[in-house]
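Subject: Predicted fold for eEF1A lysine and N-terminal methyltransferase, 683 residues

User T.R. writes:
Posting the sequence so we have a shared reference for the thread.
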Amino acid sequence: MELLPRSPGEFGSARYWDRFFRQRGQRPFEWYGAFPELCPVLHKYVRPRDKVLVVGCGNSELSEQMYDVGMCEDIVNIDINNAVIHQMQERSRSKRPKMSYLLMDVLQMDFSDAHFHVVLDKGTLDAILTDEEEATLHKVDKMFGEISRVLQVGGRYLCVSLAQAHVLKKAVEYFSQEGWVVRVHQVADSRDKQQFLLPVFVYVMTKFRKITGSAPQILEICPQEQDKPMRMDSVEQLVAAVKDKQYYALLCSQLSKTPCREQVSLDLCDKESGRPRYTLHVVDSCSVKPSRDNSFAIFIIPQGRETEWLFGTEEGRRQLATSAGFGRLVTVALHREQHYEGMASIQSELSGKVMELAPPGLPARQQVPFLSVGGDIGVRTVWHCDTSPLSGEYVVEDVKGDGTCYFRRLIFLRNRNVVQSEARLLAPTPLPGQKKRRKDKKKPSLAEPPGAIDKSYLCCEHHKAMVAGLCLLGGPDPLSALLAVLVVGLGGGSLPLFIHDYFSQARVAVVEIDPSMLEVAIRWFGFSQGDRMQVHISDGLDYVAKLAAEAQYDAIMFDVDSKDLTVGMSCPPPAFVEKHFLQKVKTILKPEGVFVLNLVCRDVQLKESVLATLREVFPLLYVRRIEGEVNEILFCQLSPEGRRDPTELGARAQVLEGALRQPGRPWDSSYVLADMLQAVKIL
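User M.O. replies:
I've generated the structure tokens; pasting them so everyone works from the same file.
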């Protein structure tokens, strides 16, 4: 530690390096990795007959090892420190007659123009470019100018660096503007992660003749695990890609030292497209005492199930790690845009990478188990992809649930971990005389999806609670009444469709701002309009404001998502719970009616503000929290005299459910209305 400089600026000081080498003596200093790590990259760009200049050589063994293995012999080394030049001359004089050491400053070299094929710099640029002061940048420009002068056209400047953002940006901008091809390699690192944090990079700048006019910049990065370079569109993108590699190295170093208190998330991207292929969460369980056999495991989440509470939330993943009985569990989510052959190919693809996330003390050759539900990777079929001007990119997909059931989902890709709409699929029934499809036959054509929508099944727990809220309506039997229901937010249409089908006297008006969603609901979710079901393409705010100021609806339901992800409330948009708008909602609700609101709000202060506003407008307020989800269903009424306790609500729900369970009409046995209402609380 006593050899480290007191400030970054000392790295560029000749006096500091003189003191450094006098104190260190003959021991070689390999701050940026030794020859075995650098060799694979150097072999690509240094040929045996090349004339090589090593700038700021210090007492590194790199030149000697390049000479000794026959990579190159015509090597000139320069440094500004006389002591180290004398030391290195003595060390190589008899062993390496073709290699020389000269006292020379890289800012002002004595060599003729175009003298070298390769200029090799191991940490010299980093030592000079310690800050972005004008004087420092002037020195770096002189250094780059001299390197450019002594290199031949087609020559390579190989700069070994820790790639601090300002260093990388300066080098890439300078040489790309000169028309050079810039490629950045990450060096495979065998150093102790507990001692070193930052990975080493090699910038390869290849000199081309400068073309007058605007020539395209060629910027590339080569990650350590692959040879094929990835093209970058801009200097900023290249710097960001390197920063990601540095973050990953730092993360692996931290994970190798100590258990992580908070869950760590990262994406592993496809090499060809650069798009995320796997999303990993590292979960350390405090309740599991790790041993050799239960310290580390990988859990592959079946396709389509990454949104479930157990896999899609921190608490769920923590519970999964505890129940699996491993000290550290890495969950792996598969992306819908990617293709996967099966569990074996995923294991082969991930086995090397996930070991970099292993907990401290895990033996190097320890077998790490790969776990999953049912031992497979699940089933996901994407039927439709499109883009809406209002909702952005979205997909309609079928996924296999827990068991033999299949579900159809609508996903907005701006929030890909949230299921926007979901419906259960009925198993296809063969026509009379038609044989069942054998298991070994080909899958059905992608032209037409298998099965039909099970309209009797509400997949979303918050939809079940919203329907149960109709028990709050006045009168003995909501089924026999001519109900007028307004639903704001269509999605796949399962909520209004259920009300239409099971409340045979109900007239349902649906307001949906996005016409694309109506098309999706009709084509993919079995939705249809009719005498008792009408969809109005309009902004819900405008539609409510334009209605006559007289009581019209027995029930008003808001199930509309917010397009603004920067707000801590994803449902509804904030404008829908402002007081002046809620007053308008109040005017179109019948005296004994119920206003049902799906509230999804992670901001505690914002949620309290919304609840306070609702209390100001609606004297009677119930809440039903959905277990394992952020959703809270609010039931708002105009008359406090209509207040009922949960037991009474449960009794009304039993009566209503008995009426809904008519002979010949399918009913989901797991849907118990009374359970939905006995858990409500009065606010």
